[in-house]
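Standup notes, structure subgroup. Blocker cleared on the zinc ion input:
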Amino acid sequence: MQLTNSLTMKKEELVPHEPGVIRMYTCGPTVYGYAHIGNLRSYLMEDVLEKALRYEGYQVDRVMNITDVGHLTSDADTGEDKMLKGAKQERKSVLELADFYTQAFFKDCQKLNIRRPDIVVPATTCISDFIALVSALVEKGYAYLAGGNVYFDTSRLDRYYVFGNQNAEDLAVGVRDSVEADSNKRSKTDFVLWFTKSKFEDQELKWDSPWGLGYPGWHIECSAISIKHLGEYLDIHCGGIDNAFPHHTNEIAQSEAYLGHSWCKYWFHILHLNDGGGKISKSKGAKLTVSLLEEKGYDPLCYRLFCLQSHYRKPLTFTFESLDNAANAYQKLLARIASLAKEGQPDQQAAKPWQERFKEALDNDVNTSQALTVLYDMLKASLDDATKRFLAHDFDQVLSLDLLQAAEKARPKEAGVPEELAREIEALIEKRAAARKAKDWGAADAIRDELAARHVVLKDTPQGVEWHIEA
Ligand code: AMP
Ligand code: ZN
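Run returned:
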C-alpha cells in the first residue's frame, strides 16, 4: 500500500516494522463538547485506513487516547485547560464532563460505522506513565525546570520542524494563539511537559509529581500512551492536519529524545472539513454535529458516503447541497443493490478481478473515490446478481455503508409488495431522477404519471425519494 507520508510529503510504500502487523496510533478527541462533523471526517478516514489494512490481511493494533486533561485553549501553552473551561460552563466535574462526551463521541462514531479502536485510553488513567517519561527526559538533559513547570528543550534537537510541508502559516499558530507569551521558555519552540504553575490556580485535577502538585501537558500523553501500548516502533500515526504542528511535532521530539531512535515511520494526516467560514472547529462553537444531520432527516451514512467521495489529503467543503447530492447517491446505490436477485451462488473466479481493482484503489493512498468507482462499475458490469451482492458485501468491509442491510430496508417499502414489482418501481424512480437531473421535465413528469397510474405515491426527502402504494 502507498500512503502519503507527511514527513516527506510523498507517497511511500508502507513497510511495517514487523511484517504483517501494523501498529497504529490515533489522537483521540478532547472531550469537552460534542464532536463536529469535521472531527469526524478525520476519524472516519482513519477508520477507512484501518479497515483497508485489515482488508489487505494485516493485523492492525490500534490505540486511541482520550484527552481529558492538559489540552489548553492555546497551542502555545497558555490559556485555560479546555476540559476545565467546559466543566465550569456545564457545571459538571471534569471527569463527569469527560465521561459524558466520551460516550457521545463513540455514539456518533457508531452511527457513522466508525469502528472503536481495540485500545482506548483516557489520559487521566496514565499519569504515572507521563511522570516516568518526563523524568527520563529530565535525566537525559532534554528537559528543564523553569517557574515550577517542566519544559522540553528543543535546542537539544538536530531538527525540530520535521514535517515536509511545514510552512510559515503552520508555524505561526503558536505565536498567533499566544496572547501572553510564556516567559519561562528558553526558546519559543520549547513546550510544557508538566505544569505546576500555570496562570490559573484552580485546575481541578492535580497529581503529585517530582516537580510538585500539577498536571501533564497535552503532547506527552500521546507519546506515553503510544509507547506503553504499541512499543518503541510505531508504523502509522494519524490525526487531523491541524495537529501536525505543534502537537505531532512535539510528540516526535519527546518520543525520539526518550527512545534514542526514530519512532514513527508514517504520518497520516487528514485535511480539514471547511464550511463557508473556513475550518470547522469546536472553539468557534460550531454546531454541525451528527445529531444535527439526523434532526434534518439525514441518515448519518450519507455523511460517510460524502466523505468517501473525496480524498483525505484534500480539504473538503461541506454544504447541505453537497450532502443532499450524497444522500441521493446513497439512495440510488441502495436501490441498485436492492434490485439484485438474492438467489444463487457467487462466482468467485469472476469476483477476483473486481476485488483486485478495489484493492488497487485502496493501495493508491486510500483512494476512496476510486474505490467507489470500482463499486459502481461492478454493479453495472455483466456479472450475475449473486456475485454482485457478494462483492458489495466484500467491499463494504472497508466502505462500511451498510450496503446490503440498508438496501434490504430500502427494498419494498410495504409488506406485501412483490419483489419484482418493487424492483420495477425503483427502476422507474431512478429513471425519473436521471430525467430530472438532465432537466428533462417532460420525461420526469411522464414517469411520475406512470407511477401514479399504478397508485405509487412519491415523496422527495433529503435522503432521496421514498415511495408507497396507496390503498
Ligand atoms: P480535538 O477533539 O479538537 O482534539 O480534535 C479531534 C480530531 O479532529 C483531531 O485529529 C483534529 O486534528 C481533527 N479535526 C479538528 N477539526 C477538524 C476539521 N475541521 N476537519 C477535519 N479534522 C479536524
Ligand atoms: Zn495526540
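Discussed briefly. The chain is about 45% helix and 15% strand.
Next: hand off to the docking folks.
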